[in-house]
Specification:
By secondary structure, the chain is mainly β. It has three helices and 33 strands. β27 and β28 form a beta hairpin. The longest helix is centred in the N-terminal third of the chain and has 27 residues. The mean pLDDT is 91.
Length: 527
């Protein structure tokens, strides 16, 4: 009996002691997190060829929770697709604790176990990230180590399995990356930056089939250089990937090595900015699993103008990972306030040209351009601020989209697009925004009109109504109207209407989305 009583007292003291320690940890640490739920109720709408799924409710929900105390951070992420919204893979259906991690951050190193995101260089060789709008989450489940032996040097190491829908894939991803700023190593006061870096990534996936050309292990190597001085910077990166099967639209299989070259030059000054980007890629589709298109190891976004207007995004470009060469020039200029031309005050101009071709495989010149033009986009955007309560944007866009070469369809789409957008302050906190866009067909496209009106009562209310009109024999209307309410860090949005079949894009990456019609409700908050 005495032994039992002593054990009981020891257990009670331990619980009390642990509770006290746990209470101190809770009190001294900080919590943060977020909640987001996007929901749609679908209806069949024959006017826009929208067919409601058997389960008419689509719901994507995310909950993230983080805790930090001193140098230690831990967190979890829960996701539920019950079922997934239209446009998302049905293989996401279900709910699960998809992320959990613990991390220790010191001036010398950062060590993380669990799920994590990382990027090497520009991402051409490796990037793990989350983009909920596209249903992308290719986090790694394993460990990462980041060393800072000197303030001018960084070394990263990763090891883990990449996420595949709500689980992990069967392949293992391993990599190491290093970067050093050479000049600052010897001169802390230097106005120059000259950094060099290199990366190595290995994907191992077992294979027991009969094809001897399919490797179990595929390596990729990258080297990069960056130079900065005041308003000028230049960035270059080259990636080489070992041979593995790559399939193109025609079904043809190629076993060539992969490569990617990116060159970027940026010039900035007061009221002026210019960026020139050039890129050549060949067989650089680097997947975590051979037969799965969900998770990509590297990140190859379309280096094109990221248009904010509806009609300009009807035919967004997606990078051709098998064979592509091209780039873009983006120039921004703001007219100085003290200019003698009165009407030019408050004037901003943005010019962009983006153009990509198929490389010339019959030419030994690495930078040779083939006869096939994939995409061409030339745009001029002019913003004029007339007063503190009134400004107008005018855009002119010319596009050429080779649908046959890009998606495996047929034909080349050509169009001109004009946009007029005005913002008017009705009261101190009340703004009215009106947009009118017109797509004028040149080849293989219909005539389209987009009208949108948005009333904002800062900081809480936003109401909008819009309509996309297809001028054809049916004159189809893709109407939408709704509102949003924001309070502190919480927001609720409700909309009703039709959504045109097309693409959803974020950060230069796009996914196809079928047409759908119905009610949408979104709720989000951060804490």
């Amino acid at each position: 009996m005495t032994t039992i009583r002593n054990l009981f007292l020891a257990a009670l003291i331990s619980i009390i002691s642990f509770s006290d320690i746990f209470g101190q940890i809770i009190q001294n640490g900080t919590f943060s997190g977020s909640f987001e739920s996007n929901n749609n109720f679908y209806q069949t709408d024959s006017a826009v060829n929208a067919i409601a799924p058997d389960d008419k409710l689509g719901s994507n929900t995310y909950f993230k929770f983080d805790y930090k105390i001193g140098k230690f951070t831990a967190g979890i992420q829960y996701e539920a697709y019950l079922p997934p919204q239209v446009g998302y893979s049905q293989l996401l259906e279900g709910n699960k604790l998809t992320g959990r991690y613990a991390s220790y951050n010191d001036s010398l190193f950062t060590f993380t176990v669990g799920t994590f995101y990382e990027q090497f260089g520009n991402g051409l060789i490796f990037r793990s990230y989350e983009e909920r709008a596209l249903g992308i989450n290719n986090s790694l489940d394993g460990f990462s180590l980041k060393l800072n032996p000197h303030k001018s040097a960084t070394i990263k190491a990763i090891w883990g399995k990449q996420r595949k829908y709500l689980d992990n894939g069967e392949s293992t991803i391993r990599g190491i990356d290093g970067e050093i700023d050479i000049l600052s190593m010897f001169n802390n006061e230097s106005n120059y930056l000259l950094s060099i870096g290199g990366s190595f990534v290995n994907r191992y996936q077992p294979y027991t089939g009969p094809d001897e050309n399919i490797p179990t292990s595929v390596n990729a190597f990258a080297s990069r250089l960056k130079f900065e001085y005041k308003a000028y910077s230049v960035n270059a990166e080259y990636v080489n990937k070992q041979k593995e099967p790559q399939q193109i639209h025609s079904g043809q299989i190629t076993y060539n090595e992969g490569s990617a070259l990116l060159l970027q030059q940026t010039i900035t000054a007061k009221g002026f900015g210019s960026t020139l980007s050039l890129r050549r890629i060949e067989n650089i589709d680097y997947r975590s699993e051979r037969e799965d298109d969900y998770s990509k190891i590297n990140y190859i976004p379309a280096l094109t103008k990221q248009h904010k207007y509806m009609l300009a995004n009807f035919h967004p470009y997606s990078s051709q990972l098998i064979d592509e060469i091209g780039g873009q020039l983006d120039v921004f200029y703001s007219v100085p306030r003290n200019t003698s031309i009165t009407w030019a005050k408050g004037l901003k101009v943005n010019f962009n040209i983006s153009r990509y071709w198929k490389t010339d495989s019959n030419n030994s010149n690495y930078f040779s351009i083939g006869d096939t033009l994939f995409y061409n986009d030339i745009s001029v955007e002019i913003e004029k601020k007339f007063s503190s309560g009134f400004k107008t944007n005018v855009s002119f866009i010319n596009q050429e989209y080779n649908k046959g070469a890009i998606t495996g369809g047929s034909g080349v789409i050509k169009a001109n697009i004009t946009v007029i957008e005005s913002s008017i302050r009705l009261k101190n906190n009340v703004w009215l925004k009106i947009e009118l866009s017109e797509l004028f067909p040149i080849q293989n496209e219909n005539n389209w009109t987009y009208i949108m009106s948005e009333l904002s009562v800062a900081p809480k209310w936003t109401l909008f109504v819009s309509d996309i009109i297809e001028h054809s024999t049916k004159n189809t209307h893709y109407y939408n109207f709704g509102f949003s309410y924001t309070r502190n860090a919480s927001r609720i949005a409700i909309n009703w209407g039709r959504n045109k079949e097309g693409y959803s894009c974020a950060g230069g990456i796009c996914k196809p989305v079928p047409s759908y019609s119905g009610l949408g409700v979104s709720v989000s908050t951060t804490f």
